[in-house]
Design brief:
The chain is an alpha/beta fold. Helix content is 36%, strand content 11%. The protein starts with 9 loop residues before the first helix and ends with a helix.
Length: 388
């Protein structure tokens, strides 16, 4: 969702030139894919070619210096979200300036020895948070023409990007699908993978489950059989009352809770939670924050991720967490403990990951709001992510 405008030290920029494509070994054992797309630790290049809120000119928001800095820290890949409305105009014509930035970004990553997951984040017919911030109602699941358009976006992306090596670039079919019927997403997955395989047989494809890619739903995802060049993806922001504390784009039951919140242990006591929820009508008493009173820590996170871990083991495919994070509205000590524990569970179970995000309110640079978009690197947060 949302910096590093200052020039980075030359020593940091030069350090990245010595990095190779080989990823550091994870603690857990993760299956590899035949195409050699190896990932371990990454970050999201958000608010550049996706969810661009105009915080800074695109040419300044993400630069080659940023990419070199990411590599110098020890990350081995980036997840690069792109939106239909950023890469294509309303009439369907490509926005060539935006595509030029995309190509530049890929070239910067190649030079810095960072692999890339290209994530089709939102399309005009689908936004993962349409109810709160996405505008019009999603039509992707009911409009055959919208589904054909979706596949055509991938046709155009493949036409421009197919020459990049398979061990450098992977495709994530779509971010956080929210189909009312799980089969609607499974059908679109099948069509999408079939198309990609028809033009790029060995490209690694990243697939996540319906309903925001939460780990509990991964067993419901129908994965094309026998395809070893697939990485399974989950996202996790659980417990939401903690990670999204006071987030303006969330349901009122989360947005309007003044706190305090805590980690580890229960985010709030049972009495506090009950009193807070009683202040809302039943329609706003959202069930997916009922876990706020659980005893949160590494064991509870491991339990949360178990359905995805088991499904990946069953299929013999790598598991990847493409998004997770906790806002700086949470007390500093608690926030850092959250990151350290979550990444510890990922690495103990061979789960590759990319935090949300490089720049923004969840970012690994200090967040000062829109008054100052040049926050310094958050060294403590970076150390917690990289387990140092």
């Amino acid at each position: 969702m949302s910096f590093l405008r200052r020039l980075l030290p030359v020593s940091l920029l030069l350090a990245s030139a010595t990095l190779g494509f080989a990823a550091p070994a994870a603690v857990g054992v993760a299956p590899t894919n035949p195409s050699g797309f190896v990932i371990h630790r990454g970050t999201n290049l958000s608010h550049w070619l996706s969810q661009d809120f105009g915080w800074a000119p695109r040419e300044e928001w993400t630069t080659e210096n940023d990419i070199r800095y990411i590599a110098s820290l020890g990350f081995d890949h980036v997840r690069l979200p792109v939106d239909e409305k950023e890469l294509w105009n309303e009439d369907g014509a490509p926005n060539e300036k935006a595509f030029a930035l995309l190509i530049s970004g890929l070239e910067w990553c190649r030079a810095a020895k960072l692999r890339v997951i290209l994530d089709l984040h939102t399309v005009r017919a689908h936004h993962f948070n349409a109810g709160n911030e996405g505008g019009p109602k999603n039509t992707l699941w009911t409009d055959p023409a919208a589904q054909d358009r979706f596949l055509d976006l991938w046709r155009q992306l493949s036409t421009r990007l197919h020459s990049y090596p398979n061990d450098f670039l992977a495709y994530e079919v779509m971010n956080e699908p929210t189909a009312p019927d799980f089969e609607d997403w499974n059908k679109l997955v099948a069509r999408s993978v079939e198309f990609i395989r028809s033009v790029e047989p060995e490209r690694v494809v990243v697939l996540g489950a319906n309903m925001w890619q939460i780990p509990q739903n991964l067993p419901k995802l129908k994965v094309p059989a026998g395809d070893r060049n697939i990485i399974l993806s989950m996202h996790t922001y659980t417990p939401l009352l903690l990670t999204h504390h006071k987030a303006a784009w969330t349901d009122p039951a989360i947005r309007d809770f003044a706190g305090p919140v805590a980690y580890p242990g229960p985010v709030v006591t049972k009495d506090v939670f009950k009193k807070h929820m009683a202040s809302f009508p039943p329609a706003l008493q959202i069930e997916y924050i009922d876990n706020s009173t659980d005893n949160w820590g590494p064991a509870r996170f491991r339990e949360e991720y178990e359905p995805a871990i088991a499904r990946a083991k069953e299929l013999g495919l790598q598991l990847y967490c493409g998004e997770f994070g906790c806002l700086p509205t949470v007390p500093r000590k608690d926030r850092l403990a959250y990151y350290r524990d979550v990444v510890g569970v990922f690495e103990a179970n061979g789960i590759a990951w990319a935090n949300w995000e490089y720049k923004g309110d969840f970012g690994i640079t200090e967040w000062h709001g829109l008054k100052s978009l040049d926050g310094a690197p958050d060294v403590q947060l970076i150390d917690a992510l990289l387990q140092r």
